[in-house]
């Protein structure tokens, strides 16, 4: 924090008490009334603010995207419906939509892809969540390798695809139903595995709770878990790790 | 059922109405007052009655073992404490106890071991449940191969031990924590896999519920599940399958 | 595994190192990009790959069916909607659909039915799941007897239908609500019972969790449980057992 | 309520306003400070107050028993430890204890047993709860028939014992593990069945939750359920029903 | 059972062995193929079979109603949609429908109402379940008093309506949300209370699980519980109790 | 209670016994048959009766609103759909509707706003529940400050908005997902915090159960919790507290 | 916050930049290494810091009590065992212990009791939690009325004790098992009710979860809930409310 | 993998087919009979095998420690009781024990500490789990900063300790009860946060499930979660991340 610098300026009369207090209080966000946009977030964390679209009111969504596009250039929206995308595109014609991952993207400053993140799925039904993870990681500058449909009940498929997984700085393992993929991967790689349970399954899968519990109880080392279907969260954290491995200069 | 034969004897006057009714009503068990021993069970199913010792009153336990030993020769007791074993041994000096599986056995008629059942565990802590399964299967005449500590987070250990597993008529897969072993085995063998979740683990393992859910949600084929820590149930069903494979003549 | 044979051929110069490595790595599946079809599965396990249709993308579903029909002749699809069936039929005109069980079948090589599997239900609402089980078993070559609406609250109906149940190599017991049927059957038969909880019921049935717990806690012997509504899994395992009983030559 | 009579007496000057208000407010219990004994309960409901001993402080327990024994003659205490019984006996030497059901009883006025209640258990481990039910019913004047160890996995034992069950005004069905006994009984009798789940079992029995769910979901008619291990509640309600059937003159 | 009489007839040659065996086996139901109608149920229990309509196939529903109407005269169907009612009315024009309780009734033999059952609700949203209970009890011959909207958060409403409740042979207490009504009623009446949790509520009401737990844990005496929203089951059991109180001659 | 006064009037002959009894029994509500309106509630508690609209039958809803509007002047309806509002407006043209909070209001007597309640949300998706709370508090006479989108993952936004929160007599903290806002607020204010979990979130948020548990387990002091999405309940209790702080003269 | 004042002093040279920064950073707690005592808490909130004793290491507990007693005079410790009390008394001989509530108190500055809080329990087993609440409220200066053993299954006991409850500024309602007391109280009083579920009960009470759900789902107004057995939290919040009602000058 | 190299040696006759097959099969572990020690683990992953002591048999534990100490030099054991430590020390006199974290360590090769990991706790009761994390990270070569007792209900304590947290390559956030610490930290740092729920709490904390859910639902970015009380897992993964940040040369 720069508290000390501000205080020194107050003492030196460079800025007024009121300005200093305002600095402490109001600086780091834009207040739209209904929302408080964290426009200094990128400076603090190296990641711009991302919009969780689901459930947002139409006019709010539009204002948020326009504001962020103006201030940040690149904007990422998650869990967007096609209807929401059309609303956004009306204001930001360069917005693009991926119906599989339900991501909306505005890319005005090209992003260089670095390092290596592997995104794996157990089955084909896990691919939408995996794509949310993969494209989030790419949005933030990670190079991504996709290895899909390598669930543990057909082990030969996984063993035949190990190279990109073992070479990644971070592995994202996406699985529903019994959710065993991260445990097997955890024993085969030396870098961290981020496990993403999906709500794929039926009956006792309990909408992903079963896979979530499996992953939390893994006896393999180097595994941590995010919320059910939270591909975005996995892609974000994988990028944090990938950046650390690449030397962080972003 | 032999209902028809009895009815013909009634018509022919070979047995009285009262005897027939008694036959229909009272035959197939010994009523000890507090319990009704199913001494005709072996004839009906090929398996003698087994005693679940835990929670039985001392004198009841003793009477049940003595009665069954007299009538059946071989007796199996599950979930027995050492104290209970001492009580049983006081009346049946040839009873033996295995403290790992907590089984009490009386073997007065030797049992020939046939066919092949594989019993696998994910970790070393699962061995007590696995031994309950293995020794139950042996008590009922199955030849058993033990393959222990082959959990999925160290896949090379499992792959190095596949032969006895792939050759078995039935595989018992015992695992706690994330419980992923049956899913991996299900993809590697062609015969049925009986999955036994164990209460091994901590935190979100929920005393075995996590492993149970994993196994129920397995996307591998040919897997069915028994109750948490129910090694006995797995050993029993594996024997049923093994006998069918051996031609059932027992 | 045939690892040894390959290695001997390498030593003898019959195949190159590169070919051998490729064999170890890439052989046992067809990679469609989005999915990895296990076309060697039938050789390994005696069962061809089955398609879980629910949630598959339209074009993926079509490609998978066409590929499997070409390579295997007979194809089974589970949990298919009528819309999905129409898509499949557009490419494979000999596909047939059963709206009760939601199975799609292509049968180009006739299947001989052998042995005996009994499929029982507690109520009439359990029949769709039972049909998934029964037709799966028939697809893989098991002769099936159906005994429906014999729930335990009307015991005389069950007792009047015991013969085909007691004679089966394996019994599938399908029940929702309180799920007590497998426990009663387990006491009446000598061969294995596969219990299938269904999501039939309301209130405290918790979408099948109640029936599932009942079945896991059964004090009858010889019962194992599959996931809620998983008729397919039960039919598959029943066939494994039935084949073992028939002598396995398939 | 006798509100009207009191009000008439107020108008007639037979009792004062203060007395009437006191009547409305303070009559129907003895306030011991820490507890409010409902000594008018027997007049209102035909059942005296019963003491739930577990967790009561020693001196409180003693005072409550002495007070009730003085005022009511007969006293019933449930869930009493032997230590608690010794404390009670120090003040009430005619108190008796049943270690199986954990009931303490003082009987100073003999109770005539009438009508018929059947108490059934699935296994021998359910007997303690069944005895709590049976002896509670007897304490309140019901004639009881005990039918123990007739669980549904050995149906012939149940069918051989039907007479006393079918003749009872009310059946209490006590079962742990899968808890299927009430469903089967519900289909065989015409009078009400009170189902008592017990905490007997392990693993997925969840301390009786599994049996409780089974019973709530029973598709048999005429079944209602009390709390896990609540033999007392079942015995109480069975007596209410039995009294109605006997003509209620008690 | 009349087993003995049949056996005597066999001995006397009055009926053949085959007829006797058939009697034991096939008598008590009509097998429609997809369902086994229990047409002897009324003789055994005094209650005809009732049809749970929800989920039945259209043609099955029609056949079942026609068959039961022919054989029994009066028929009750529960959980029927208006569409199902129209199907039934096409075959049985005298069928009537109550959209609140979702019951379909055919009454060809008038029913005399006897005794007294009180049906209470906590709120107005619980009325549909209460009507299912009340009309079921009336269908089976019980006189019913309805006391609605007397939840415990407005105690004066309940206290002002006590007379019909305290005079009933059996009280049905229907409540969602916190489900406290049965506890309060249990302390105010001397006859049994059947508690019916409803799925009314939101958030932590968990679709009725909260009310169900409340009722199971009631510290009032004389309360037993049926499944969530199971008005039918409560009306059935209340009738059993009411009949016992009326002297059972029906 | 005024019991004493009534009784004195009875003694003095000022009112008859019948009138007194009627007073005790029937006074405090209007019985519409299907519902019992608590029209004396405002006298007893200072708050008029509020209508929970969801699930009410159309004609019932109309009658209730008309009756309450006539007797109380101001009426509040919660969880109303727009369709329900149109029905109400047909009879009460001065009814107004807020689609965000789903409240219907009739205000015929102006309400003076006093004291201070702060309503905070963690995110923008929590605003509908917050508005239900805020407008309920306003309906009952509390002055409200709204502080929205100050979730704990962007702490600077919360710290910049502390003044109205710290000055309030009561704080309502509305949050879904992890529900951490009340804990942080609890450490920053000296007056009570009412925590409202919302059903906002996905996966392991379990429709608000996760946020509910978080709030119940808060280690901050001065926090109590209402049901998931229960903005109304929070606004009601905040007003109770605010009135106490203002001196209660309302 | 006094941020502005500090900043003005910095500008005026009254304090140095370093001092100001230190003020912002280190002022409000004493860092003992293993714990950070919030010794300015009383100034901020009017309540001193309270020690949750359970699980604290012996030497830590002693240091914390000594430090707080020196700085604050009065100290309250919750969930203390007798052993922990002995340790504390060794350093602070004026500490007193209440074994029922498990509170340790040091009172060096007398506390004046003001206002009115009512603490009610459903049963006698709830008294320990109620005493934790009552004595906490007294420690912080609230006058408390105790009304114990007034559960809803014996309504006359509650109605006879209404006066102190209806006059209180805040009511604490403590109940286990079905937890219905707060709902009934909520309908009888005009001030807030803080509901405290207790872990009293068995079986489906689920260690207090059942009572907790009941309270959260209460349809009475003016009820909020704290964690299971959290008497301390209820006493704290009741005092906040009571102080607001008394005019807050403390 | 070095598969290719081995295959080339086979072709060149440098090693025999049998040796190659043995290499593929048996190399990477030491089979002790009851356990299969993964002694090549360090080569594959950079982390030696760690012993989960809890539940291990005494003689097994001793053998495993002796073997690993001989082969690896440094050994870490988790969840060890003091009794187990004494057994280990009997064979390995240089073993040391930390009773807070329950870790046993043998350090024969000094470890250089690099990079930076911050370990934070919400309360003092979370310290044992935090120490397991911190000492695990140190065992594997990470430099650790401990920041304890900075829970969110006293935000000033956290804000005063931000520097070491914001500078770490990875933050471990350990919290029980409401588990809100990771959410607040996630908004304040730019590197990954590993959240560790602890079983600290009571009532609705559900032995850590509440904290676990909070952390999974965090709306802050860059958070992933491990199992309840799994300090070891967090320390392991933090080291993986820290090594990547340091350039991985270990």
From TrEMBL, chains A, B, C, D, E, F, G, H:
GO terms for molecular function: hydrolase activity. SMART domains: AIRC. Pfam families: AIRC. Residues 115-247 form the PurE domain. GO terms for biological process: 'de novo' IMP biosynthetic process. PANTHER family: PHOSPHORIBOSYLAMINOIMIDAZOLE CARBOXYLASE-RELATED, SLL1489 PROTEIN. This is 1-(5-phosphoribosyl)-5-amino-4-imidazole-carboxylate (AIR) carboxylase.
């Amino acid at each position: 924090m720069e508290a000390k610098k501000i205080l020194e300026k107050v003492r030196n009369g460079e800025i007024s008490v009121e300005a200093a207090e305002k600095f402490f209080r109001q600086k780091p966000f834009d207040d739209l009334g209904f929302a408080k946009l964290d426009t200094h977030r990128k400076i603090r964390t190296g990641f711009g603010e991302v919009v969780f679209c689901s459930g947002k009111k139409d006019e709010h969504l539009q204002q948020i995207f326009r504001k962020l596009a103006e201030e940040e250039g690149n904007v990422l929206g998650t869990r967007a419906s096609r209807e929401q995308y059309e609303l956004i595109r009306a204001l930001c014609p360069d917005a693009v939509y991926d119906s599989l991952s339900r991501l909306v993207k505005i890319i005005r400053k090209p992003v260089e892809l670095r390092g290596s993140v592997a995104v794996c799925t157990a089955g084909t039904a896990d691919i939408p969540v995996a794509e949310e993870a993969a494209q989030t990681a790419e949005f933030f500058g990670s190079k991504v390798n996709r290895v899909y449909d390598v669930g543990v009940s057909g082990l030969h498929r996984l063993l035949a695809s190990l190279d990109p997984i073992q070479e990644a700085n971070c592995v994202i393992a996406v699985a529903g139903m019994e959710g065993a993929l991260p445990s097997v991967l955890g024993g085969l790689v030396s870098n961290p595995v981020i496990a993403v349970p999906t709500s794929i399954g039926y009956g006792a899968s309990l909408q992903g709770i079963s896979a979530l519990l499996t992953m939390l109880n893994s006896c393999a080392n180097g595994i941590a878990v995010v919320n059910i279907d939270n591909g975005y969260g996995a892609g974000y954290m994988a990028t944090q790790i990938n950046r650390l491995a690449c030397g962080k200069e972003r």
